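Worked example 2:
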Amino acid sequence: MKKLFGTDGVRGIANTELTPELAFKLGKAGAHILAKNATSTPKILIGKDGRRSGDMLEAALTAGLCSIGAEVYQAGILPTPAVAYLIQKYKFDAGIMITASHNPMEDNGIKFFSAKGLKLPDQLEEEIEALVHTNASLPCPEGEGVGIVRACPHALEDYASFVISTVPNLHLNGMKIALDCANGATSAIAPIIFEKLGAEVHTLHNCPNGININANCGSTHMDSVKNFVTSHNLNLGLAFDGDGDRMFAVDENGQEIDGDRILAICGLDLSENNQLAKNTIVATVMSNQGLEVFCREKNITLLRTDVGDRYVLKKMIEDDLSLGGEQSGHLIFRKHSTTGDGILAGVQLLSVLYRKKKSMAEMAKLIEIFPQVLINAKVPNDKKHQLQADPEIKKALAEVEANLSADERILVRPSGTEPLVRVMIEGRDAIKITEWATKLVQIIEERG
């Protein structure tokens, strides 16, 4: 039986893999599981990132939720972290975000959030999945028991006010920045937030039409924002992904600043101001060895988790920590947010630069990033989890590992959201590790 939930909700090609029928069932099952402790009519918030299939899936989800008696509040197009925040502000019983994040427009996904604005633990996802697969009989209220749909008209404004409130007295006067909104969920709100903070804002890719989300833009396609920053002599650029839960920066020279560098910059600033809880940063197994070296030199503890900001947050909650994130740009400032938030992370980063009166390039030099090669092997979803047991792949992997030095490492893992196996090798010799990764990917694709 096909597993529905990956590392970040349920994803697939909209209308063929992620169908309205499946969305309807997920709505019913999700409402039943997440709102079973509600003392009154369960209230559930829905947001979406603006891709064309979002309307279709929202309608199906809403029908499923209403059929079980839930009251549905539709917030429209807004970033994923806004959903997480608004759940808590408005005291909803749960929330749902319709998004495929950085994936192409034909994909879509469904993310569930608890009443605390948290992504669901594996146990709850398994309970929802079991109800969907077994077609379990769920409540079907009649008459006045059927759910209704309401609007949530002030969602974006409330989220913007919250983000601005996290940096009191910040005035970015004189700072010239570019924002690449990926034609996604940040398009309507990110420029407003940074303009209210006093920056001179130049906005790219902020005209979503349902089809152009993530299309050669955003945090996974950085060329346009890099070129814009350098050609217009700006201080820096920020690039978000389709649903706004991740962010990459660009310095004044057009150099990319990934999540590891941003963790180092913000983590050191928090540490120097005694605001880094237990002087510890949480990252994942994908974070660069350079971050490990940086933290050791600054007497900061670095903890690693599995890939996925939900696992980063889980560790942060368990150990009561304040900063964590991923190399991919998911950055969690737990004092303010329960999930990765690209706009909020951008505001925090600019706050550090402005207070220290240093350029993005100067701050980026704090950390030396080791050469890292990440190549994706294309493998069908139904095979990607079994391939590491293949004898030929195990042999090739062992040969690479035998040649690694103390400063080098390899990580091979199936993607949680796409039909890929990711091969990452890290070391000081970029040519050597590229050759190894390329060879290993070729073998994995042949055996897949």
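Residues 341 and 398 are 38 Å apart (CA to CA). Residues 372-447 form a domain with the TATA-Binding Protein fold (CATH 3.30.310.50).
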